[in-house]
Amino acid sequence: TQHHRIVVAGSGPGGLSIAARVAAQGLEVALIEPSSRHVYQPFWTLAGAGIVDHELSVRPMADMIPSAVKWLKTSVTGFQPELNQLQTEDGQTLSYDFLVVALGLQIDWHKIPGLPERLGQQGVCSIYDFSGSEQTWELIRNFKGGHAIFTFPPPPIKCAGAPQKILYLAEEYFRKANVRDKTRVSYFCATPTIFSVKKYADALIRQCVKPRDIATHFNMRLKSVDAENRQALFENSESGEEQRIDYDLLHVVPPMSAPDVIENSSLANAEGWVDVDKATLRHKHFDNVFAIGDCAGLPTSKTAAAIRAQSPVLAANLLAAVNGQAPVATYDGYTACPLVTGYGKAILAEFDYELQPQETFPFDQSKESLLLYLLKRFVLPQLYWRALIKGRKWPWSKVGT
Ligand code: FAD
Questions:
Q1: In the CATH scheme, what architecture does the domain 2-105+258-331 have?
Q2: Which of 31, 36, 103, when mutated, tests ligand 1's pocket best, judged by the most ligand atoms within 8 Å of its CB?
Q3: Phi then psi for 243, rounded to 5 degrees?
Q4: 109-256 adopts what CATH topology?
Q5: pLDDT digits (tens, 9 = 90+) for 309-340
Q6: Rounded distance, CA 194 to CA 400, Å?
Q7: Domain 2-105+258-331 shares a fold with domain 109-256
């Protein structure tokens, strides 16, 4: 059995930012991550609308991991927190003094029959995937009119704004391409409202949905896809009624869930996510285990922006635990979503566990603006690469990625 002082599982923004912060304190850290590429997923929305090349979202993992951190290039296959141990794909058992779980979430393409084998073909696409983002742009660019459907699955999902961003960008592109008058644009949403925070929901309906003639259908969940006949089957979550709808373009946001390796372990809560305290990010039963990011069982929206706020809190509480002290910092559920509403326009939703807006700028961020678009397109990606994943302090107190 190999032993490490601190093991971080997963090298997305959550795992990287914590590994960098604790390594900077001179602690021994091993980082378990199978992928040789790190992806900046927020770019997939822009890639899906032809704003950036999807290749810009990728960087070599080796360049992301701080030199003081030991990279174990394998996957975690099992957790035994009772024994302070975990197993890896390459057949090893690792023990640790402290564990940080940062495995992200799992995309369940297979839960929509007919979907996985059709992605990128016959009008079916999704930005929730690296190559899928490029295929989405192909389909939007070549769209000749008809019924364009965009879906939103039952939550939780990561970046709950992304399904709408691609909707608004595509709708504007159809106008630019002179196909909008031959196109019906529909949004099928499994939730009862368009956004969880009322201020932003109202602003989106008023500024985007109504004036741009987008048909919204709430409480409608995509059940299956019949790509041969270009039909999507939806179920109304209130009445249970099913409806078969013809489409020419179908942008699917797949259901998502906690990674199986967490769900099948004693780290999980009833829904399969890591069962951490929502303020301290420390596990409710195992004092030497913490979780960050999408895999953590936190009642807030899963974003990289949330990780930006969680990272300093988790690092402070982990260092306190290493020194035998009680947690010293608390997380208020801060999350953010720059909702791109067109080519050159965005609003910026920022809120906490109470779904109360927590805005950074001294103007109303629910109003579409070029400034917020430029922030999303140019500033936040730089802050992601230069500050967030390096575990450095953010230049101002809030604002997401
Ligand atoms: P991830 O980034 O998913 O990283 C998890 C890591 O764990 C991966 O490297 C994976 O390879 C590794 N891993 C998985 N299983 C194992 C295993 N068994 N063993 C070891 N390693 C494993 N967020 C924003 O803030 N703003 C946005 O505008 C935004 N837009 C988005 C648009 C799209 C289309 C998508 C898909 C996401 C968007 N997000 C956005 C969300 C953001 O990308 C995620 O919330 C963020 O990446 C979560 O980070 P994480 O570290 O928790 O997980």
A1: 3-Layer(bba) Sandwich (3.50)
A2: 103
A3: -140, 130
A4: FAD/NAD(P)-binding domain (3.50.50)
A5: 999 999 999 999 999 999 999 999 999 999 99
A6: 20
A7: yes
